[in-house]
Records
---
Amino acid sequence: MRHLLSILDLTIQEIDDLLASAEDILDHPDQYSEACRGKILAALFFEPSTRTRLSFESAMLGLGGKTLGFHDASTSSTRKGESVADTISVVSGYADIIAMRHPKEGAPLVASQHTRVPIINAGDGGHHHPTQTLTDLLTIRRELGHFENLTIGFCGDLKFGRTVHSLMEAMSRYAGVRFILISPKELAVSPVMLEELRKKGIPYVECESLEEHMGELDILYMTRIQGERFASQEEYLRLKDSYVLTPDKLAGAKEKMLVMHPLPRVNEIAPQVDEDPRAAYFREAFYGRYVRMALILKLLKEREGKPVSPDKGRPHYPRNQLPGGVCKNPHCITTTEQGLGQIFFQDEESGEYRCFYCENKAE
Ligand code: CP
């Protein structure tokens, strides 16, 4: 069964088709208003959200379908200790498609092993956020018209920012792309991701100054410092205002540069920047509904004609496992989910072993 756990689950052609479909829905919403009649989306949000949850729900309602779910895991049986696997085993009997957000990395992969219906990752810890990336890509396509030969500055929390990780993976597939990675040293992109960029031959610069490369950028992707992922509140307070974009800092930027942000913002973009035509973040949030409509349609269409069974089938695990490893990532789903084994798979290119769930290197 098809799921969307990472943006790399989609080919470039599929992304192009999804973005074209989203634009068609945007232009002709009435033609799609009955497309999901009789279908149900479950929105399971184990972590707070405004845009992702409401745009998923709005997307399904706009397609003529219905929604159910929870936006606070403490009102679900998670509070009583129910596992992700059991929750999904049950809810996948009540809905045709599931969008889920979870604070633990790899939780949607666990869900995909226990579901009868497609799972969409609506954000898992600091790991992936593929539907935000689809939103970002639609924004870039509509506002710049192409993905090639772009210099993209990612600024802020590049360690825990899942939207950064997914967008970097997506943009790494296009020719001529270059990254400027702007962060305090403590919140830099992980060595594993930098290694991936080197392997793919993507040029990048790491720096701490927001202004230093401003004039080179086609996109400035600002991010919030992710306070909820810090082990130390003191460290968060020290770093939280590392970058604040103000109109004067945009003085040296290209006339057509896009300022993007997945939102919510806290203090990293001054409200005065909103008046600048380059500020694309509220348009970006607007496009989210349409890419999610296109995605729901695609995943449900691929399931058409296949009956849903009361038996949910068996999970699939990778070959080439490393016996005896323990994942050291405190944000990995293996730290909380009952009954999950420690599974490490061998990366075909590097030969390294990585956690099956959160993809951290085996130590
Ligand atoms: N961009 C994003 O994921 O926003 P929410 O946390 O409000 O869903």
Note: The longest strand covers residues 40-45.
---
Amino acid sequence: MALRDVIQFPDPRLKEISKPITLVTDELRELARDMIDVMYDEPGIGLAAPQVGASIRMFVIDTEWGDDEAEKSPTVVINPEISNREGRITWEEGCLSVPDYTANVDRDAAITLKGQDLDGNAIEERAEGLRAVCIQHEIDHLDGILFIDRISRLKRSLYVKKRKKQLAAEA
Ligand code: K1U
Ligand code: ZN
């Protein structure tokens, strides 16, 4: 299994606004399969297409997976939208594209997600807690927004400094 690389901050591709998907092709199905493999391999609980270099509106999510195959139930969502929002929640988030950093982010506590699956069926799901947080995080990726764009300017600049040092040490 050849895994796709996850693009890391500060790659400018993470800032792009992704395009809506108009046609489900075999290539798109293969990308979705690859994204699921990458999500479990990293490991993560979600992954958006721009994180593997595809500027299109699709993400995968599985917030409750375990090591056994039977405990895996990934959802692929195309052209996601949030149709309802309730309450507020603070969650300590991480991101596969923002290495070695977590921070508290304020989000909607419960949401209704709408979108389509790979067979063209409508998806409508009410999510709360971590799943609601993760869906909002993934849709942010499709809009070129990282969770570090939702923290204080001071915290973000401290992280950017740390990341620059890390990249300089790797060079
Ligand atoms: O989109 C991503 O970068 C994936 C990200 C999703 C996310 C995590 C936490 C809050 C909001 C969004 C991750 O999966 S980071 C890794 C992670 O949280 C995790 C990994 C393994 C087990 C449990 C959690
Ligand atoms: Zn992320």
Note: Residues 153-170 form the longest helix (18 residues).
